[in-house]
Amino acid sequence: MMNFNFNISELIFVMPELFLLAAISSILLFDLYIKEQFKKFTYHLSQLALLITGLLAFNLIGESATIFSGTFVLDTLGSTFKVFIAGFSIIALVYSRHYLSVHGLLRNEYYILALMSILGMLVMVSGHSLLTLYLGLEIMSLSLYALIATARDRAFAIEAALKYFVLGAIASGLLLYGMSMIYGITGNLDIAQIASFASLVTLEPQETLILNFGLVFLVIGVAFKLGAVPFHMWVPDVYQGSPTSVTMFLSTVPKIAAVALLVRLLIDGLSDFQHYWADLFMILAVLSIAVGSLVALTQVNIKRMLAYSTISHIGFVLLGFVTGVLEGYGSAIFYVFVYILMSLAAFGSIIVLNRSGFEADQISDFRGLSKHSPWFALIMLAVMLSMAGVPPFIGFYSKLFILQQVVSEGYVILAVIAVIFAVISAYYYLQIIKTMYFDDADKEIVISAPLDLKAVLSINGALILIIGLIPSYWMNLSVSLF
Amino acid sequence: MIALSDYLILSSIVFCIGLAGIFINRTNIIMILMCVELILAAVNTNFIAFSYYGSDLSGQIFVFFILTVAAAEVAIGLAILTLMYRNRGSIDIDVTNTLKG
Predict the structure, then answer these.
(1) N or C terminus: fewer CB in 10 A for chain B?
(2) Domains in chain B and their CATH numbers?
């Protein structure tokens, strides 16, 4: 039974979410009443709000509490995720502004919707009951659907929004059906209660069966949100159709939230059923790595290519969860953060090529970039080598840690398959490098990006190399989250 | 007396109709929205049945939230649909499905 008691002092633990919600409401009002010439400050206010949210979350690292009658949990994992969500979103918004302004898409609702979806992610990260997890997921998803549709005169963007909407709705439906089964058998929405029910040794075969039935739906729902094969059909279309700034946002920050959903439901909640869901994840992981690596070979649209590359990266993340040990989970979390850092830099490099009246989204748009702008070509080179898994870049270490754990848990075949497909996928990453360095430009390249975008992109590119110098420190940090 | 299993069978049938409707339907996007509603209705039936037979109120509270979210979801879905019609002049699935590769 639910027991409602509320203590005002608990509010201190939800400060990041409360602050962000208050900030969103104020920014919305500010934007409504302010004069036209001050409208540009909405962007700065949004960045400030994100920064403060991140600092508040950082301040709470180390605290742990379960509040609001067990529906909301604060732990180191959650607080760290929140800090990274806020930090990566700040980078994403810096990149977005240039793209939006050169293509005439700059409306201040964009920032409000982005902040709203970030609020949903924060709630999801801390959700400790099926209800809070679902609500966080929907706040995030509904804002993202609208975010894609802000490019309301682009037929492709609207089609992408519609596809994302329909597949997202199916995913939440499946997830909810699984939740209802779990609720039915355990009689509880609280993750801790579900975990203690699932760990009972006196569990009857029928009860195990029903829990498993619900578990399959939960796994499908999570796989939809992560974009793992065979639930990946929306990923390429949505990535290609959405405005590049939204594609960048979609492919990065929500993945942290989806991993958090996975951790809360399957590791916090149903870790006693690990051997059941690990089998499912094994299939999802192998298929994702294979399909992601093979189909990307034939793409000419770079956003679509990066979509398939995302799918194969998600396969590696799932491999980390297959292992069932804390080091494996830690390496999966590390991989997600590394992937997001690389993905942000990759999309940032695409956005930097955009200028008024020119939409860069083909691989051929990178032709001759090294002659015109060696610096940005170098950044893209680092990103592509890192994604392919070449040392000393960070992408190498993230793959290495996953494979180490997979091998040490005895799944040698899985590791061999993953490495073979990683080698195959190196082909299309190297193809972009070849396009930048050895092909001649067939059209003029003009880089009109503002200074802040160039600076942040340079830092982002440098981080891919610098973090690669001390990978074990970050790896230990990721493992210590559990 | 209606047993719990009757409700569960009903909801699983409605759930399957909803899912099948989404995947078989090849004509109109409005139909997809209706099928999504069917899926959510099945889930709601499940929650209420479990809540009633398990004497636990939290399932019914969950249903309130699902209903609210479903309303918001349909509002956004129809808004996107309107934009689709404005851009392409049709809401047929065959006409609107152009992103491929």
Answers:
(1) N
(2) 27-93 (1.10.287.3510)
